[in-house]
Amino acid sequence: xxxxxxxxxxxxxxxxxxxxxxxxxxxxxxxxxxxxxxxxxxxxxxxxxxxxxxxxxxxxxxxxxxxxxxxxxxxxxxxxxxxxxxxxxxxxxxxxxxxxxxxxxxxxxxxxxxxxxxxxxxxxxxxxxxxxxxxxxxxxxxxxxxxxxxxxxxxxxxxxxxxxxxxxxxxxxxxxxxxxxxxxxxxxxxxxxxxxxxxxxxxxxxxxxxxxxxxxxxxxxxxxxxxxxxxxxxxxxxxxxxxxxxxxxxxxxxxxxxxxxxxxxxxxxxxxxxxxxxxxxxxxxxxxxxxxxxxxxxxxxxxxxxxxxxxxxxxxxxxxxxxxxxxxxxxxxxxxxxxxxxxxxxxxxxxxxxxxxxxxxxxxxxxxxxxxxxxxxxxxxxxxxxxxxxxxxxxxxxxxxxxxxxxxxxxxxxxxxxxxxxxxxxxxxxxxxxxxxxxxxxxxxxxxxxxxxxxxxxxxxxxxxxxxxxxxxxxxxxxxxxxxxxxxxxxxxxxxxxxxxxxxxxxxxxxxxxxxx
Length: 517
Fold this sequence. Notes:
Blueprint: H1 5-18, H2 20-51, H3 53-62, H4 65-80, H5 83-106, H6 111-121, H7 125-139, H8 143-174, H9 177-195, H10 213-225, H11 228-258, H12 263-283, H13 294-313, H14 317-345, H15 351-399, H16 401-405, H17 411-422, H18 432-440, E1 443-447, E2 452-454, E3 464-468, E4 471-475, E5 478-483, E6 488-489, H19 491-495, E7 503-506, E8 510-514
Antiparallel strand pairs: 1-8, 2-7, 3-6, 3-8, 4-5, 4-7
């Protein structure tokens, strides 16, 4: 039987940590995001001090452009090549570019050189999240463990939003932005080390068949557009990313001009977002192993926007800290619910391309938001921009109330089917991705008491898994054994290509599942 309640969810998180592959992947994930947030603070400070708020928006937009351009290619490569190898390249490139930015600052080169290294350091953004989220199902052993891995990932990411900007604030207070970029290079190198040695399950269905990049990319686009739950989640994530891009510019203006906190204030405010995110990631344990992810996603989307509007209405330092913490909390819950839903609704053969296209949408939206941020400040001021951006997300959460309520139709049923297969002796050892594929093709059969399911000597081409009830297995009229739920029969006729070796009769009303590998 599966574990239920909070104890089962905590147990699932413990299982994630005991899984060597997932543990190493989560540590690398945390290192990547810590470096990302710390370098963003340093870059924003360098740009603002050199050329003002408009430069911050332009630089934040520019760092998204290369990622957006390579995202379609990465989306295809994530289904063609081992995802852990792509992650190794991601961390190596990030470490090299951050180190280059640090040296450029130490040598007092033109700010445009620092911007260039920062832009190149952002290129791995297109590959990191898609490859990590596509790799997780190959490392997870159960549906609960997969959901728990997303909670663990968001815990590390939220801690990174706290540690990265907080560490950057400390380094900026005692040193220069070069020290921040140097620390980011070191973190990226450690993430590279963490990924080395990961050995995920090899599943044929998790690799796309070779073909042209255009054709494979078209398959990924189709998988998003024609999949209602995935299409909905990707679209709403895009809106949230747009607001995030606007917020990236507003944070600098709020910290330095509106609240008079100085350069370290950028890191401090961003760290407040991280504190809430960490709390939200821990609260995300509640989502592990439960269905109905649409409503938590809806509440989190509104919860992301409303605190920003509150800061615009009431621009005081305590309100900014609390508001950003609440937005961070909502961000974690949004990601846990959204990512898990996408993973469960996406076939493994195209999951890399789907998450690659998802990342393209996010990167493009963040870039556009970075450009809109300075424009909004010029038009309605920083406070008006906060109210408008935050109100947009709350409005979208309300408009898509009905669709989000139906987000995960069928997922609970599939999870129960996977759990049944895991309890069997034959299918239980298979990787979760294989079991999930089998669950999608399960046939069903019912039988009354006394009904023969298979007869000795007849040809056989079906394997049966007992979902409910008991059967008697007999040979030449002599009962051999009694089977119950999660037991399997009929497999020998398939494995050995021989007639049925026994007769199986229902002892009570019976519900069966028929896997079709």
